[in-house]
Amino acid sequence: VSEPVRYSRVDDIGLITIDNPPVNALGVAVRRGLLECLQTGLEDDAARALVLIGAGRTFPAGADIREFDQQPQSPSLPDVVAGLEASGKLLIAAIHGTALGGGMEITLGCDYRIAAPDARMGLPEVNLGLLPGAGGTQRLPRLAGVRPALDIAVNGRPVGVSRLQDMGVVDRVATQDLQADALAYARELAAADAPRRPLGELAPAAPDEAAFDEFEQLVARKKRGYEAPAVIIEAVRTATQTAFADGMVRERELFVERRNSAQAAAQRYIFFAERKAGKMPDIPADASARDIRTAAVIGAGTMGTGIAITLADAGLPVTLLEQDSEALARGRDKLERHYRGQVDKQRMNAATADQRLASITPTTDYVALADVDLVIEAVFEDMDVKREVFAQLDRHCRADAILGTNTSTLDVGAIAEQTQRPENVVGLHFFSPAHIMRLVEIVRASATGDVAMKTAAALVKRIGKIGVPVGVCYGFVGNRILHKRQAQAVNLVTAGATPEQVDRVLYEFGMPMGPLAMWDMAGLDISYKAREHVRAHDPSNAPPRNWVDEVVEAGRLGQKTDGGVFDYDGRKPVPSPATAQHIESFRARQGITPRDIDDAEVRERCLYVMVNEACRILDEGIAARPSDIDVVWINGYGFPRYRGGPMHWADRVGLADILERIRHFHDTTGDPDWAPAPLLERLVAEGRQLGDLN
Ligand code: 3HC
Ligand code: NAI
User: Fold this and answer.
1) In the predicted model, what is the mean pLDDT of the chain?
2) Whose CA is nearest to atom 11 of ligand 2?
C-alpha cells in the first residue's frame, strides 16, 4: 500500500506530496502523514524550505466527509494546520484543481501560496451544514478582510485565481509546471531570507459592520431555514473581537455543534446521494457509453429551447428542428433573447454568447439529422405527434444514434415501439426551466438498452445536471409523488383549510413555495385537461370533481391569467375572494361543513402521502433506492436540502409514527391514496428504516 503522504527532496527544497485519490481528501492517514512528513522535512538539514503539493487532479478538496459520521481520530485538522503554521522552515503551498474546505485551510497554515492559473479555492462547508473547522473562519478574515471571508464562507462558492490574488490569498501564479515553479519560488524566497508569515500571530481582523449587516440580510433572504450560515457569520465576527487562540476555541465549539446537527447529517447524506444517483447497479460494468459529439433537439418551444441552451453551453453543436419556419423563428428569438440577457447581466461576454448561439443550427428538414449522435424530442405532449416524429427520426438518424424523449406523461415504451431500434430510445425528462433546473429523470423503458442508459447518464453529467434513472409509470418518480401531494392540498381546502393556510404550512416547512401557488405558476389548465380526458375516456377511473375544476372553468388558469387559486400582486400570491366563493359554493353543494384544520394535519397529510407513494414506487422498482427519490425531490421541486429529502426526513420522523397517521387518514377518509404501502408496513414490522435500503 502506498503512503498517502510522502517526503522527498529536490536539490535544496523539501517536497511534501499528498497522494490520496481521487480528491486528496484529508482523512486520518493523510493528517498523520502530513505531520510526519513535516517533521522529516524540518529535520532534513539539506532542505532550506518546504513545498506542499497534491498529486493527481487536485490539492486536497477538504476533510474526508465520510469521517464526520465516525468517532473523531487524532490528529485533528486544526492540529495539523497549527503544526504547519508552527513549522521552523518556510512553507509554501502549491495549489491546483480545487483547494476546498480543509484543503484551503491547510494553505492558510503555510507562509506563501502559489497557484496554477486555473486553480480554485473555497470554503464549501456551508453546503454540508458546517462551518470551516480548521481555522478558516479565523485565519481568512485576518489575511483577506471580513468581506471576502464572509463571501467565501457564507456563499460556499469556489473562487478563481485572479480574485484570490486581489484578496492576498494567492501570492504568485504559476506560468509553466506548478511543481517546478513552486520549487523555484521556494528557492527564491529562501535566498531572499523571506519572513515566515503565521496568520495565527496576527491581531484580530478589522471589524466591518456594513459587511456583517449585508450578509445577515442575505442569509435571511436566500438561506431561509439553514442554520449554518448564521453560525459562520458569528465565527467570523469572533475573528474581529478576540485573540486568535480564543477564536479557535470558539470555532471548534461551533464546528462540533454543527457536525452533530441533524441538518449537517442530512446535507452529508444528500452529498453522497447525488453522487450515487448516476450509478446503475443493474448495468454491467463493461457496457460503455457512446461518445456524444453532436446533438439535435426537436421542438423549439419552452423545453426545447432550454435544452438546446444547456447542450450548447456544454460545448455541443446542436441542430434544432421545428415543424415550420414560423415556429423556428420564434424559437430562434427565444434563444437570442436568452443570450442577450446573459450578456446584459454580465454572466457571459458577447463573443461567448455569439459563439453559443452560432453553435445552434435551426432547421425544418430531418435530413440535417443524418449524422447526429443524440436527439432529444420536446414536441407537443401528444402521442400521435410523437409517433410521427419518432418515425421520422428512425428513418433519418444513424442506427446507433440515441433517441431521447422529454415526455412527462406518455409511455416511453410505446414511443420506442415506433422505431426499429427501441434499445436506443430513452426518456430524458428535464424540468422547467430546462437550462436552470439540475434534475433530469432518465427513463428506462422495457426495451431500453444498457448502452443507451449509460450514454444518457454520461451526457446528463457532462451538461452539469444530476441524472436519476427511473422506470416507466405515469409521472415517473417526481410528478407521480407530486400529484398525490397536490390532491391532498385540494382535499384539505375542501374539508375546511384555506389555500393560504396550506401554502403557508409547506412554505414554513422549507418548500420554496406552497403547493397551490406552484400550481398557479405551472398553469391549472394542464392538469384540468388531463382530468377531463380521463373523465371522458375512462369514466371508471374518473377523478371526482373538485373546487379547482370550478376555478379553471371560471377562466382562472393561474399566473398567466393574473389569477388562479390566488390573486396576484405582481408575482406575490394574495388570497382571492373569487376562489373563496368557488370553495364555499362547492362545499355547500357537496354538503360539506368546513371544520377547523390545524397546521399539523396540513403538514402530515401533504408530506406523509408523499412518503406512502414513494414506498409504492420503490416496491415497483420505478426508483432504485430511497436516496434517488430524495435527489429527485431536492433538485426538481426544491424540497429543503437541510432535511435530506422526503425519505431521509421520514426516517428522522419515524416510520412507525408515520404509518400510524397514514392508517388514521385511511380510516377517516377512505381515500385509496392513504392505503398503507406494503413496503412501509414491512419496514415498520421489521423495525427497519428507508435508509437501510440505500
Ligand atoms: N470526502 C470524501 N469523499 C469525497 C470528498 C470529500 N471531501 N470530495 C469528493 N469525494 C468523493 C466523491 O464522493 C466521489 O466518490 P465516488 O467516485 O466514489 O462517487 C469522488 O470523490 C469524486 O467526486 P465527484 O464525483 O464530486 O468529482 P468532481 O470532479 O465532480 O468534483 C469536487 C470534485 C469539486 C472536489 C467535489 O467532489 C466536491 O465538491 N467535494 C466536496 C468538497 C467539500 O465539501 N469540501 C469540504 C469538506 S468539509 C471540511 O473540509 C471541513 C473542514 O473545514 C474541517
Ligand atoms: P411547447 O408547446 O412550448 O413546445 C412544443 C414545440 O414543439 C412547439 O414549438 C411546436 O411548434 C413544436 N412541434 C410540435 N409538433 C412538432 C413536430 N411534429 N415537429 C417539430 N416540432 C414540433 O411545449 P413544451 O412545454 O416545451 O413541452 C414539450 C415537451 O416537454 C412535452 O412533451 C412536455 O410534456 C414536456 N415537458 C414539459 C415541461 C414543462 O414544464 N413545460 C416539463 C417537462 C417536460
Assistant:
1) 97
2) 327
Distance 24 CA to ligand 1 centre (A): 9
**Is 253 an active-site residue?**
no
The residue annotated as part of the active site, out of 105, 274, 377, 613, is 105
pLDDT at residue 530, as a whole number: 87
Q: Kindly report the CA angle at 389 between 458 and 357, in degrees rounded to 5?
A: 55
**What DSSP state is assigned to residue 596?**
-
Q: What is the C-alpha to C-alpha distance for residues 464 and 440, in angstroms, rounded to an integer?
A: 10
Looking at residue 690, its pLDDT comes to: 98
In three-state secondary structure terms, 92 is strand
Position 279 pLDDT exceeds 90? no
Contact between 73 and 109 under an 8 Å Cβ cutoff? The reply is no
- Which of the four pLDDT bands, split at 50, 70 and 90, describes residue 648? very high
Whose Cα sits closest to atom 34 in ligand 1?
Answer: 98
User: Which ligand 2 atom is nearest residue 389's CA?
Assistant: 18
**Ligand 1, atom nearest to 124 Cα:** 44
Is the distance from CB of 210 to CB of 151 less than 8 angstroms?
no
- Give 339's pLDDT tier (boundaries 50, 70, 90): very high
Looking only at the bridges linking them, the beta strands covering 5-10 and 172-173 are unpaired
Distance between CA atoms of 369 and 393, rounded to whole angstroms?
8
3-state secondary structure 414-433: HHHCCCCCHHHEEEEEECCC
Task: Give me the pLDDT at residue 535, please.
Answer: 93
Residues with Cβ within 8 Å of 254's Cβ and at least 6 positions away in sequence, in order, are: 131, 231, 234, 235
Give the H or E element holding residue 403.
strand 402-405
To 10 degrees, what angle do helices 599-619 and 646-653 make?
A: 120
What cell numbers appear for 590 in the block? Answer: 357537496
What type of residue sits at position 218?
L
b/e map 224-261, b = 16+ CB within 10 Å? eebebbbbbbebbbbbbeeebeebbebbbebbeebbeb
Separation of alpha carbons 134 and 270, rounded Å: 23
Q: Is 619 exposed, middle or buried (0-12, 13-18, 19+ CB in 10 A)?
A: middle
Model confidence pLDDT, tens digit, residues 113-151 = 999 999 999 999 999 999 999 999 999 999 999 999 999
Candidates 389, 399, 403; CA nearest to 459 is 403
Residue 1 has pLDDT above 70, yes or no: no
Q: Active-site residue 102, yes or no?
A: yes
Cell of 159: 473562487
Task: For 167-294, list the strands marked E by DSSP.
Answer: 172-173
Per residue in 359-404, pLDDT (tens digit) is 999 999 999 999 999 999 999 999 999 999 999 999 999 999 999 9
Compute, in angstroms, the gap from residue 555 CA to the centroid of ligand 2. 23
Q: What is the pLDDT of residues 424-439, one digit of tens each?
A: 999 999 999 999 999 9
pLDDT in tens, 175-223: 999 999 999 999 999 999 999 999 999 999 999 999 999 999 999 999 9
- Predicted local distance difference test score (pLDDT) of residue 541: 87
Active site residue 205: no
Residue whose CB lies within 8 A of the most ligand 1 atoms, among 18, 34, 58, 65, for a mutation test: 65
